Structures are given as structure tokens and as C-alpha cells.
Amino acid sequence: MQKIETDRLILRNFSVTDAQGLLEYSAHPRVNCFLDDKMSTLEEAALRVQERSNDDSYIAVCLKDSNALIGELYYVKEEQDTYAVCWNFNARFEGKGYASESVKAFFKYLFIQKGARRLYAYVEDDNYRSQKLCERAGMRKEGYFLEFISFTKYEDGTPKYENTFQYALLKKEWIKQQHSK
User: Fold this and answer.
1) Domain count of the chain?
2) pLDDT in tens, 54-97
3) Which of 22, 28, 47, 71 is 20 to 30 Å from 94 at the Cα level?
4) pTM
């Protein structure tokens, strides 16, 4: 992927120097959907970074002044013009607008460079920060799924199902939002 710069951030492919940053926010996932990505050693993080460095669907979000990894964005192309989107950020950098800044640039990249017609995201009903991020990025709440998916289990071994919102944004909605700014 071609590097994208915003006022304070660089969005780029992962590089070997990102292992420590990835480990920092992946060692203790804050939402259940990232439990499968949990890692506990720098070696695991280095392997994951190496895999992601060759995959344009994983985008490293870095501070422009230090190149420090603060999070990631990624997409899954589902149909010719529909993309599922997701993000994961280091809690140390919350409240500064970095997630919003990067997601807006990410959406522009997907709509303009990748030819997306529709973007959507699934967000657990207790993940308020991600819900607000979807809304700040111009997405609308499109659905609510009860006991939609299980990422973890209760102490007795039974699956814990997550209630999940679906947010979406069409390219024509995004264009209209850009013109109204």
C-alpha cells in the first residue's frame, strides 16, 4: 500500500520495527473480538509483524513525529465493492483523536483507491469507544444482532455470545458528507 499521511499520523504497511508496539496493545486485548490475536512474547509479535508486512489489508497507524506504532486498521474485501473494516488501538493513545483521524483517512483510501461502494463494521454493544468512532467517521447504525458471535467462554465452559451492532457507510453517503464540511 502507498503510505498515507494525515496531520499527525502515517498509515503504512507494517515493518519489523513495529513488533514492540504491536505487542504492547495485543498482549491484553480490551475487547473480546481480539482475543484470538492475543500474544505474550516479542517473538510472537515479530512473526505477526512479518506476516502483516506483506499484506496490504493490515495498515499500521504510526505517529508522524516518531514513527511509533499506536494501532492498526484492516479490511476484508467481501464482494467486489464491499469491505468489512476494523481497528485496534493502544489504550495509551486514547482521547487524542488519533483513531478518528486515521479512520477517516482509511475510509478515503478505501472509497477512492480501492473502489469501495460500501463499508461496514461490527461492534460489540459494550464497546462504546468503537461505537463513537464509527459515528465520528460518518457511519450509521444499521443493525443490532442479539447473541451474534462468541469469542470467549463463561467459567462453566459455555460460550459467551456478544450482542453486536452493525455500522455502515455507502460511498454516496461519504461523498455527501465530504461536500457538507
Assistant:
1) 1
2) 999 999 999 999 999 999 999 999 989 999 999 999 999 999 99
3) 47
4) 0.91
